[in-house]
TrEMBL record:
Provenance organism: Mastacembelus armatus (zig-zag eel)
Domain of life the protein comes from: Eukaryota
Protein name: Grass carp reovirus (GCRV)-induced gene 2e
Cellular component GO terms, alphabetical: cytoplasm
Amino acid sequence: MKVQWAEDDFDLPCGVTQLGSSVPEDNRSYVMYHGTTRMNAQSIKAAGFRRSPDGMLGCGVYLSRDLQKASCYPIDHPENDRVVIKVKVNVGKVIAINYQGHPRQKTWHDWRYGPVFDTAWVPPNCGMVPSGLEEDCVWDPNRIQIIITRLGLDNPVNNKSYVMYHGTTRMNAQSIKATGFRRSPDGMLGCGVYLSRDLQKASRYPIDHPENDRVVIKVKVNVGKVIAINYQGHPRQKTWHDWRYGPVFDTAWVPPNCGMVPSGLEEDCVWDPNRIQIISVIEPKPVQVNNDFPVNNRSYVMYHGTTRMNAQSIKATGVFDFNGMIHKEH
């Protein structure tokens, strides 16, 4: 079962938002996101967007309604130099480019090849984007209005408060809400409460646990004195709160992409649970599927998977052929 981890605002770690998977309607306005570098973000804020000369959809401004998609860009670029720009876009006339080699894949705005479109949309899970997330390409930069710029995760500063997240089970979440957090006896950073400023990281836990029983607790943390544990075998990796080994720290922080966490996402470990204030519990939102018992004489949207060749035949004749069994559409 696919789930969506959603927040109502934009003040959350890059990487997770509610997926924009519905078909964009002509002439509607949508919130979208663009991932870039800090330097490029400053240029875009000053002079506006400019079309990329080429790409999967040809020339245009590449965006996505999916923050998770945008936050991955620029790919292979240091996370602390990534920025996500939140924008509002009037999509104009939209075409869906839903398979590689689509006849209008790079010519959707070229009148010489047919009707002119303002936005090309790649649906999620259509096989064109490795991540399975949706993509949009907008021809006219004037259709794009900047709302806000969101920086990647900066180094936590001593004695500042941050929003963080903790992934757990529904039962454990009830216990934590009732009695507060308790330190884990051990882990990568030793004893402490494990959290992350990255919702994407927290939403994966407990690993190998059913998604419909996972929840994420959103908290506010005063980090106190922070130490960066940025490589395996760091001399204070598990002793950062032990005065016998040097200065005492309140929070241990694993930077993103330092090689300690397989996902490359940041991790935090807080010693004192009293530094943690619960804000809310975020529940997974299943992708909407109507599994109710069908009611007599009601109409329902349904789907049929087939080959491209069969699809053309069905569109032309209204006949389904399943291994020699014919069913004609009425």
